Each structure stands twice: as C-alpha cells, then as structure tokens.
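input
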Amino acid sequence: MKKRLYIGLLLGLTIIFNGCSEKKDTKNNLNNEISFMIPDWGVPPQEMLDEFQKESGIKVNVETVSWDDMRNKIAIAASGKKAAADVFEVDWSWIGEFNSANWLEPLDVKEEDIKDIPSLDTFIVNGKVLAIPYANDFRIAYYNKDIYSKAGLEEPKTWDDVVMNMKILKEKNILKYPYTFPLNANEGTTTSFIWLTYLRDGKVFNEDGTLNRENALESLRFIDEMVKSQMINPANLTMSAIDTYRELLSKDSGFMVGPTSFIARAVDPKQSKVIGEIEVILPPGKDGKATQTMALTEAVGVSSLSKNKEAAKKFVEWYTSKNSQRAFFKEMSTIPTRTSVLTEVIDAGEIKNSGAMKETSLLIKSPFPTGVPAYYAEMSNAIYNTINKMASGNITPELALEEIDKKIKELVKNN
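output
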C-alpha cells in the first residue's frame, strides 16, 4: 500500500512538474514575441522579418496603423497602463509629450551610431535616447534651372537673393507665382515658419523656450512681403502643404525649400513636368548658404509599459541598423537616416539628381535648444492659425508676432 502511494505521489509530482515546465516554456515563447505598430510605409518586407526571427528567435507581429491614429492609440493604451505595442512609431513632434508622459523606455545606443545619425539629436532628452530615427526627411532647397537661366539668374545663396530672384521672375512675366510656401491653417505652415527662421537666423527659440522675437519677426515680414507682392499663389492659404510643394513639379513656381521626397518626385514622370530641370541645392541662409537645417524625422521607440523590453530593444537595434536601412531604401524607398548609408546610396547613383543632398544632411540639427516641448501641438496650433490669419490680410506681422509670442510664453509658464 505504501509502495502504491509512493508511486502515485511520484506520478503526481511528475505531472505537476511537467505542467509547470510547459507553462514556463509557453511563457518563454511569449517573451520572444513582440508587437510592432507602424504606418504602412514603415512595414518591413515579411522576408526580412522572417530572417530577423531566424537570427534572434524573436517573432514580430506587425500592426499597421495610420500616422493620424498612432498617437491616440498610444495615449489611450497608456491611460490604462498598457502598451499599445512593444515598439511603435515616434514622430519628431511627439517626443516632448511622450517624454513628459513617460511613455518611452530609454535605449542604449553606441557613440558611433549617435554620430552616424544626425537627426537622433531630436530624440535625446536629458541625455537619454528615447527613440531612433528610421526615415529621413530634412529641408533642402530646389530651383528650376531652366526658368532661372531664361531670366538670367543664378543659384540663390541668401534669402535676399531669393527675394530679388522672385521679383525678377514676376516682373518678366516668366512665372505668375514664382515662390511657393505653405500658408494654410495646418501643421505644415508651423514647420515651414520654424525652418525658415532656423535657416535664416539660426535661432527660433531662446534657451528658456520662449520665441526669439527678432528672428521670428524677420520671418513673418518675409512671408508677408511674399504674399502681398503676389509671389505666392493665394490658393496656398487653403491648399495642403504637400500640394503647395507640387507647384514646383507643375512648373508653377521656380524655387522652394521643401521635403527631401521631392528629389525623387522631381524625376518621376508620373508626378513631374520638370524632369531634368530641377537643381537640388543647399538652402540659402542670411549672409550665405545655411549652416543648419531642420529634419522632420520619424523614429521607432520601445514602450515603457512593454512586458518584453529586451526583445523590443533588440528589434529596434535591428530595424535601425545599417543593413536594414540599406534594405529599406531598396525595398521601400525609405531615405536612410544614417550618414554612412545615405552616402553609400548616393555615391552608388541610386538616388537620381541628388544634388546637395549629402552635404545638406550633415547640417541637420534641432531648432529646439532644450528639446521639442511637451506642448508642441498646442504651440503649433497657435502658430499656423496666426500665420494663416496674417497671410489672409487680417493682421500685420507685428500683431502676428505678439499673438504667437504671448501664447508661447503662456505655455512655457504653465509647463
């Protein structure tokens, strides 16, 4: 009887032990599975994800979410103390808010990688790297060399040159609206105001986060002059930013500073009427060529609420590595954020008519001396609505300055 009880006890313990082992194995398998939330343009080919799983043992479940819905999903999940995904998209404009809300896990990044990714500066807060850029988009200048040649003009070096060139193109009836610039009540107008001030004077915001009034006023007066002298199409007041940039491709404007994506768009027969006519150049500055430019970069970060942070970090390291960036450019036309990879594809002639793309990429810096503020969205709203009002002829540049300055000071004080 005792022997039977002993054997039964052993069998029971064996079943319990095996059951615990099975649960442990299941848990380990779950620890090697992460979720990745990204807009469609950032989804890697399945072959690459399969290869990553083979090398790391980590399975990646991709959830494709539109950029417009991304931030809300992250915020809603975080309010319930849950991660919307282990890894997710982090736009440059969100970093202040995400840091303030503690939604991101700090990442370990090698010094050589920090030097290789100039736009990483935007995602470093208080010495901590909170996300790593994967898709590059910095502001660069374009002009139509055929139109300029017809008017006897040369490449503009300063913003005074730009004004002079636009006036000549207008006076000679070569172009009705020679300059294009976003003016609608939307985010594109805010970023355009910021990069314009940054390129012209190098200082948009003071160390305490307030607006640099002198430089801001100079930019507002420039915009006002371009509008009143009808250098800019009045339709830009309601047109989306991307459509204002397309005026260069339709030969309705001769000069602009805009997204790097227009390097490829300008040589695409489906989008461009100016193939072979566009020069890609260093943006103009105040007294010569600009010494800095602004990047509107997209990055990926690890949720601070993730239950599998180590696997998530390994995926981010792989996703932003040199090999992955090289593959993403080939498969998805994603412009590399790494200088080494961007240089490689340019030198290989894989970007047509790249012009000053390489040189300009080295000038990427953040216009925010203390980092993108947590109140950026509210500040942006004030900027683009005020500029739209000024461009509509309702207020002067001086009054526009006062409105923007007052709002930013309120935001600084309350945060």
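quick obs: Confidence is low (pLDDT under 50) at residues 1-30.
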